[in-house]
Write a structure and sequence with these properties.
The chain is of the alpha/beta class. The chain starts with a helix and ends in a 19-residue tail after the last helix. An 8-stranded mixed beta sheet has the order 6-5-7-1-8-17-2-18, sandwiched between helices. The chain folds into 2 domains: 238 residues, 3-Layer(aba) Sandwich (Alkaline Phosphatase, subunit A); 87 residues, Gyrase A, domain 2 (2-Layer Sandwich), CATH 3.30.1360. The chain contains 12 helices and 18 strands. Helices cover 32% and strands 19% of the residues. Keywords: Blood coagulation, Cell membrane, Disulfide bond, Glycoprotein, Hemostasis, Hydrolase, Membrane, Metal-binding, Signal, Transmembrane, Transmembrane helix, Zinc. One of its GO terms (biological process) is blood coagulation.
């Protein structure tokens, strides 16, 4: 009982400590470095990022959503929804009813985005709050007729420093205050495609540049007085795997291009048959042993990639490291989009600030779990989502969290204590109730014995 009392008391103390950090309106900055594969942290040096992690929390692997592409996963991070639910199902999409096309260079129609409500819209609609964004996918589009109060129209030519200067200025000086901000950078994704993640020479240089940018971010927040009261999450949308010109799947050798329309290519190809769906499917099914071919209704449930009209009738999924091509197509040396159960597709998450523990490591969460956690930090009511807040409680200072091994230890310890106390009680009761041992009657000198 004493042990349980101590645990409850310590939980209350932790909760009080967490709440004391919220005397100022909670603020959150979400930062994404595109294509930052989780195990880069183990394979390369990151002095600035590791310092950030040492004073905060680290989730070593984030299980992202299928398909593991940029637009879908960035929208899952800020909505807590699987792709079939938020509607951004690929970087290239086609809507058969409206005949509209979506691509990374043709993404500004709200039609594609309005199936979900991202966190910056929810935050923007609160009284005395505003949102800001620097190049995060979707933030320069009026989703449900709402954009962040402060945002930048997307352009890959804008430097990280300019994006950072805008974000920090908005966080520091805006009224009403910016309480949610998002910052996006295209690296190390671009270099991962160009060189492949196994090119240690080039990737070492690129990842050092990333770490230097994180150093700039931390320095900027400190000199502007934002560091102590701002919650910062650094994460990514997906990882990267090595590809090769020797691992190609040529669709033109399997099916006539006139039989279908190609909506999206490698490593998950979206096929819209023009005539006989079954015939196209059967030809593709026998195309390569390094590619899974699914009719839409047969896509595995674990992908959560079936219930949306923008998902095409036939989906091809290449094995890790294999590239789906057409004739005369040249493969990238690195790519992503593969099965989201693959460790190479996983990003990481690091976080620092008054909402988070210090020096804490966690093995894994799902990317859809990040949205309800961010809503909790900001005090927002989340929209319906596929995430689970309980999966991220251990990261947060105001939440009482016991891991499974600890819980088992506490239960075993409590049972041992209860057993010991019960045994002692039984032994004591037995001693008190037992008859006294026989003792000979002692006669006084003037007493006569009854029998001589």
């Amino acid at each position: 009982m004493n042990l349980l009392g101590i645990l409850l008391f310590s939980g209350l103390i932790t909760a009080c400590r967490g709440n004391s950090s919220y005397s100022l309106p909670p603020k959150l900055l979400l930062v994404s470095f595109d294509g930052f594969r989780a195990d880069y942290l183990q394979n390369y040096e990151f002095p600035h990022l590791q310092s950030f992690i040492k004073e905060g929390v680290l989730v070593e692997h984030v299980t992202n959503v299928f398909i593991t592409k940029t637009f879908p996963n960035h929208y899952s991070l800020v909505t807590g929804l699987y792709e079939e639910s938020h509607g951004i199902v690929a970087n290239f999409m086609y809507d058969v009813i409206t005949k509209k096309h979506f691509s990374d260079s043709n993404d500004r129609d709200p039609f594609w985005w309005n199936e979900a409500v991202p966190i910056w819209v929810t935050n923007e609609l609160q009284e005395n709050r505003s949102s800001a964004a620097a190049m995060w996918p979707g933030t320069d589009i009026p989703i449900h007729n709402t954009t962040p109060s402060y945002y930048m129209n997307y352009s890959s030519s804008v430097s990280f420093q300019e994006r950072l200067n805008n974000i920090t200025s908005w966080l520091r000086y805006s009224s009403p205050p910016v309480t949610f901000a998002a910052l996006y950078w295209e690296e190390p994704d671009a270099s991962g495609h160009k060189y492949g993640p196994e090119d240690r020479g080039n990737m070492s240089r690129v990842l050092k540049e990333i770490d230097d940018l994180i150093g700039e971010l931390i320095y900027k927040l400190k000199i502007l007085g934002l560091w102590e009261n701002l919650n910062v999450i650094i994460t990514s949308d997906h990882g990267m795997t090595q590809c090769s010109k020797d691992r190609l799947i040529n669709l033109d050798l399997c099916v006539d291009p006139s039989d279908y329309t190609l909506i999206d290519l490698s490593p998950v190809a979206a096929i819209l048959p023009k005539r006989n769906r079954t015939e196209v499917y059967n030809k593709l099914k026998n195309c390569s042993s390094h590619m899974s071919v699914y009719l839409k209704e047969d896509i595995p449930a674990r992908f959560h990639y079936q219930h949306n009209d923008r998902i095409q009738p036939v989906i091809l999924v290449a094995d890790e490291g294999w590239t789906i091509v057409l004739n005369k197509s040249s493969p990238k040396l690195g790519d992503h989009g593969y099965d989201n159960s693959l460790p190479s597709m996983h990003p990481f998450l690091a976080a620092h600030g008054p909402a988070f523990h210090k020096g804490y490591k966690h093995s894994t969460v799902d990317s859809v779990d990040i949205y309800p956690m961010m809503c909790h930090i900001l005090g927002l009511k989340p929209h319906p989502n596929n995430g689970t807040f309980g999966h991220t409680k251990c990261l947060l200072l105001d939440q009482w969290c016991i891991k499974l091994p600890e819980a088992i230890g506490i239960v075993i310890g409590a049972l041992l204590i209860l057993t010991t106390v019960t045994s002692l009680f039984i032994i004591t009761q037995n001693r008190l109730s037992a008859p006294r041992p026989f003792s000979r009657l002692q006669l006084q000198e003037d007493d006569d014995p009854l029998i001589e």
